[in-house]
TrEMBL record, chain A:
Molecular-function GO term, any one: ATP binding
Entry keyword set: ATP-binding, Ligase, Nucleotide-binding, Protein biosynthesis, Transferase
The protein's assembly and partners: Heterotrimer of A, B and C subunits.
Matching HAMAP family: GatC
SUPFAM superfamilies: Glu-tRNAGln amidotransferase C subunit (SSF141000)
Family: Belongs to the GatC family.
Organism: Chelatococcus composti
Top EC category: ligase
EC numbers for this chain: 6.3.5.-
Purpose: Allows the formation of correctly charged Asn-tRNA(Asn) or Gln-tRNA(Gln) through the transamidation of misacylated Asp-tRNA(Asn) or Glu-tRNA(Gln) in organisms which lack either or both of asparaginyl-tRNA or glutaminyl-tRNA synthetases. The reaction takes place in the presence of glutamine and ATP through an activated phospho-Asp-tRNA(Asn) or phospho-Glu-tRNA(Gln).
Protein's UniProt name: Aspartyl/glutamyl-tRNA(Asn/Gln) amidotransferase subunit C
UniProtKB/TrEMBL annotation, chain B:
Family the UniProt entry places it in: Belongs to the GatB/GatE family. GatB subfamily.
Organism of provenance: Chelatococcus composti
Example GO BP: translation
Keyword ATP-binding: yes
Known function: Allows the formation of correctly charged Asn-tRNA(Asn) or Gln-tRNA(Gln) through the transamidation of misacylated Asp-tRNA(Asn) or Glu-tRNA(Gln) in organisms which lack either or both of asparaginyl-tRNA or glutaminyl-tRNA synthetases. The reaction takes place in the presence of glutamine and ATP through an activated phospho-Asp-tRNA(Asn) or phospho-Glu-tRNA(Gln).
Reactions this protein catalyses: L-glutamyl-tRNA(Gln) + L-glutamine + ATP + H2O = L-glutaminyl-tRNA(Gln) + L-glutamate + ADP + phosphate + H(+); L-aspartyl-tRNA(Asn) + L-glutamine + ATP + H2O = L-asparaginyl-tRNA(Asn) + L-glutamate + ADP + phosphate + 2 H(+)
Presence of keyword Iron: no
EC numbers for this chain: 6.3.5.-
InterPro entries per UniProt: Asn/Gln-tRNA_amidoTrfase_suB/E, Asn/Gln-tRNA_Trfase_suB/E_cat, Asn/Gln_amidotransferase, Asn/Gln_tRNA_amidoTrase-B-like, GatB, GatB_C_1, GatB_Yqey_C_2, Gln-tRNA_amidoTrfase_suB_CS
Protein name: Aspartyl/glutamyl-tRNA(Asn/Gln) amidotransferase subunit B
The gene coding this protein: gatB
SMART domains documented for this protein: GatB_Yqey
Top-rank taxon: Bacteria
Stretches assigned to the Asn/Gln amidotransferase domain: 345-490
One Gene Ontology MF term: glutaminyl-tRNA synthase (glutamine-hydrolyzing) activity
Length: 95, 494
């Protein structure tokens, strides 16, 4: 499996990463190198092997259902380029 | 599940210009999980609030913040799965669903894709005509809700409030088992009832706690499924019906004109009663799901599920069956009573130790009738279950007549008080003293010699005499006693 230039541009767009025309061939090479490595991995027979989700045998931590956070709207919007009355303000997303 | 084996039902077909069409409907329901805090953060889930007040740094997707799952949300999903008679998966996985929108600060929604917490299940739905349909559940998974964008605050800007961001949702997906808008509405009503019984979602559609995406396609009976359109975010049961009816008609018209249906997402416009195409974004469905590396698989053992199952409340289907068996109610009456848990509890409080049918009659006909008229729900009924029970008792003991019981109900409704004392104080007791009734009968007979002649030839006139005696006794005479005494005094055979 390998990607063409068009796919590289599409993936970049989906991830909202700006890519210049000069960068595309280079990225295409990098992505294809990764995919080649995955192809090699695919040759290993993993029939009957459970997918490993953690290096250490761990169980997911769970929280009790209690309100322990929030109540600081000014901190939430502090880094926003634009805010008003503790709302984030962004360019209009519908016509 | 018998999803595709459901036989064609001629009653449910829609007549087109060129023949009959069958409508195929499947639904994806988003139900907000009842919990105090969010799925992966300790911020409050309370509805409303000042902008961005119920938001933690996790919900705002600040760099370095990590999600930690709320165990209660997991339990709620399992309870719901049990209520849907569904398979509970002891291992499930959270995935990232990637897309960009201003009310989704992470740039992805944490959801479950390939391994949901709940698998296949079934909901039985009773239709008004007595038919029972089985609706297959495909899956239920846990996911995060997004924030809210306001577009009407500013001419060129949108305002974003993340209070709802990260609140736990259950997405419940049905199989394409529904065949009419009526079935879809009845299913949604039943699902809402089950969720409310379980206490896992408050079912408040006005606040958006429960909303549905409806998939609609049409086909000629017996043919493969047609191309479907998805109507997004329909937020009332009535609108679900309207949206389906409109959409089915629209698709039939296109097909009958020789056109084809484009698979697309549509919006229901409640003001116009029509669906319209949402401007489809390019690559909109390329979500590039992958397992969320911040979260381990969600695991628990069967004992954990069994423990939750043990504490599950009695569900509407079981309650209905019990009401029919224990209280001798008809399927219809039992169905009406179990539609809301509060109503069922109220009925049981009235019926316990009394005649179930009489209790059901009073709850459904008198109380519901009156509550509907005043626009009240059962929790705000001015007549308590104890008071209504006392009225039923007085009636059963023969202390008051049926007519007086209705007067008494009115008094208790508007003034309150102990029904037994009211009957005592206002002299509403039924007169069973035959001496007093005889005196009243005698005076009616004495005052109407002409009618006495007539009744001998025409025994159906007896009713007129009963009416006169009842009037003379202020409606308090026992009607059976009046009847008997009149018959013997007038010489009318049994």
């Amino acid at each position: 499996m390998s990607v063409d230039e068009k796919t590289v541009r599409r993936i970049a767009h989906l991830a909202r990463i700006a890519v210049t025309d000069e960068e595309v061939p280079h990225l295409q090479g990098e992505l294809n190198a990764i995919l080649d490595f995955v192809e090699q991995l695919r040759e290993v027979d993993v029939e009957g092997v459970e997918p490993m989700t953690s290096v250490m045998p761990m169980v997911m931590k769970k929280r009790q259902d209690a309100v322990t956070d929030g109540g600081y709207p000014e901190k939430i919007v502090a880094n926003a380029p634009m805010s008003e009355d503790n709302f984030f303000v962004v360019p209009k997303v519908v016509e | 599940m018998n999803a595709h084996a459901r036989p064609v039902d001629a009653k449910k077909l829609i007549k087109g210009a060129t023949g009959d069409w069958e409508v195929i409907i499947g639904m994806e329901i988003h139900a907000q999980v009842t919990s105090r805090s969010k799925l992966f953060s300790g911020a409050s889930t309370e509805f409303g609030g000042e902008p961005n007040d119920h938001v933690s740094l996790v919900d705002a997707a600040m760099p370095g913040m990590l999600p930690v799952i709320n165990e209660e949300c997991v339990k709620q999903a399992i309870r719901t799965g049990l209520g849907l008679k569904a398979q509970i998966n002891l291992t499930s996985v959270f995935d990232r669903k990637n897309y960009f929108y201003p009310d989704l600060p992470q740039g992805y929604q944490i959801s479950q894709y390939k391994s949901p917490i709940v698998g296949e299940g079934e909901v039985l739905v009773d239709m008004p005509d007595g038919e029972q349909i089985s609706v297959g559940i495909e899956r239920l998974h846990l996911e995060q809700d997004a924030g809210k964008s306001l577009h009407d605050q500013h001419p060129s800007m949108s305002y974003v409030d993340l209070n709802r961001s990260g609140v736990a949702l259950m997405e419940i997906v049905t199989k394409p088992d529904l065949r009419s808008s009526e079935e879809a509405k009845a299913f949604m009503t039943k699902l809402r009832t089950i969720l409310r019984y379980l206490g896992t979602c408050d079912g408040d559609m006005e606040k958006g706690s429960l909303r549905a995406d409806v998939n609609v396609s049409v086909r000629r009976p017996g043919e493969p499924f047609g191309t479907r359109c998805e109507i997004k975010n329909v937020n009332s049961i009535r609108f679900i019906g309207q949206a389906i009816d409109y959409e089915a008609r629209r698709q039939i018209a296109i097909l009958e004109d020789g056109g084809t249906i484009d698979q697309e997402t549509r919006l229901f416009d409640a003001n116009k009663g029509e669906t319209r195409s949402m401007r489809s974004k390019e690559e909109a469905h390329d979500y590039r799901y992958f397992p969320d590396p911040d979260l381990l698989p969600l695991t628990f053992d069967q004992a954990y599920v069994d423990e939750l199952a043990r504490h599950l409340p009695e569900l509407p289907d079981e309650k209905k069956a019990r009401f029919m068996k224990e209280y001798g109610l008809s399927a219809y009456d039992a169905g009406v009573l179990v539609a809301e848990r509060e109503t069922a509890d109220f009925f049981e409080a009235v019926a316990r130790g009394r005649d179930g049918k009489t209790a059901a009659n009073w709850v459904i006909n008198e109380l519901f009738g009156r509550l509907n008229k005043e626009g009240l729900d059962i929790t705000r009924s001015p007549v308590s279950a104890e008071q209504l029970g006392a009225i039923v008792d007085l009636l059963g003991e023969g202390v008051i007549s049926g007519k007086i019981a209705k007067d008494l109900f009115e008094i208790v409704w508007s003034e309150g008080g102990d029904p037994r004392r009211i009957v005592e104080e206002r002299g509403m007791k039924q007169v069973t003293d035959t001496g007093a009734i005889e005196a009243a009968v005698d005076s009616v007979i004495a005052a109407n010699p002409d009618k006495v002649e007539q009744v001998k030839a025409k025994p159906t006139m007896l009713g007129w005499f009963v009416g006169q005696v009842m009037r003379a006794t202020g409606g308090k005479a026992n009607p059976q006693a009046v009847n008997d005494i009149l018959k013997s005094k007038l010489g009318i055979a049994e």
